[in-house]
């Protein structure tokens, strides 16, 4: 039975032929390199395929004795490992809140890939995404849906015009769809049918994405602890995410109208 492993090492003595030696050792043990890339400064990561665990154990024992490298990770690959090898760097994760992941606008490709992998999973997942206007929140959520080959449904949104859905039709009820809502728009809506629809979707075993999750949970039965993932997207690493301006902009928009395209919030 073929098993997959993630192998990461830090270069201690960078000499010509080092990678070739490691690749040759893997070949002799009949372990296949699936993907290889630098994942951090001075570090290289690999996804490996092996026919049996004995080959992996022998490789780990030999590699741990090499003076030219230091073994840093050797495990069954996690999602962050796969993306690190694919994109050449790790996703930044909050040290205190392990379900919070941080991105900047230059990371949109990595963010889309990350969300698409979550979308491909079965069952309930509640994802919150924080960020200031026009940073790339909505476009990333939609692009990830396309990558995951999933249909996206806006329950509430400020994309092109403000949207507040009160009912769904036909295949929109499918558990394979991605349901997206804007926490500020939903919180401010006075449409009870909309709130009932949101509650119904929250109970479904499917993927839900909430923009502005902190505003969504205000005066509701939900809390931030209910979220499986919190994504923070910024224009720059030191940008502060605040809601005062966003709430003011929402209040100035006419529900159902274009508002001079002021409703765009990508």
Automatic annotation (TrEMBL):
Residues forming the DUF3388 domain are: 72-255
Q: Which residues form the signal peptide?
A: none
Q: Which domain of life is it from?
A: Bacteria
One Pfam family this sequence matches: DUF3388
This chain belongs to the protein called DUF3388 domain-containing protein
């Amino acid at each position: 039975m073929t098993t997959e492993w993630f192998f990461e090492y830090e270069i201690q003595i960078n000499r010509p032929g080092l990678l070739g030696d490691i690749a040759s050792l893997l070949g002799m043990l009949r372990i296949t390199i699936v993907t290889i890339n630098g994942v951090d400064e001075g570090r290289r990561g690999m996804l490996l395929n092996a026919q049996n665990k004995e080959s992996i154990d022998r490789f780990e024992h030999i590699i741990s004795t090499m003076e030219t490298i230091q073994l840093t990770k050797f495990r069954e690959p996690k999602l962050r490992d796969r993306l690190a090898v694919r994109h050449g760097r790790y996703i930044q994760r909050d040290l205190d809140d392990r379900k919070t992941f941080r991105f900047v606008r230059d990371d949109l490709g990595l963010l889309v890939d990350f969300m698409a992998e979550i979308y491909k999973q079965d069952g309930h997942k509640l994802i919150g995404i924080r960020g200031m206007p026009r940073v790339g929140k909505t476009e990333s959520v939609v692009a990830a849906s396309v990558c995951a080959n999933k249909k996206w449904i806006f329950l509430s949104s400020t994309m092109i015009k403000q949207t507040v859905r009160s009912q769904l039709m036909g295949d929109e009820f499918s558990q394979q769809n991605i349901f997206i809502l804007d926490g500020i728009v939903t919180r401010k809506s006075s449409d009870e049918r909309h709130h009932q629809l949101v509650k119904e979707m929250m109970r479904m075993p499917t993927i839900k994405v909430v923009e502005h999750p902190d505003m969504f949970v205000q005066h509701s039965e939900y809390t931030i602890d209910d979220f499986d993932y919190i994504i923070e997207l910024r224009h720059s690493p030191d940008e502060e995410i605040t809601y005062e301006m966003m709430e003011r902009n929402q209040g100035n928009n006419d529900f159902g109208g274009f508002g001079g395209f002021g409703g765009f919030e990508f």
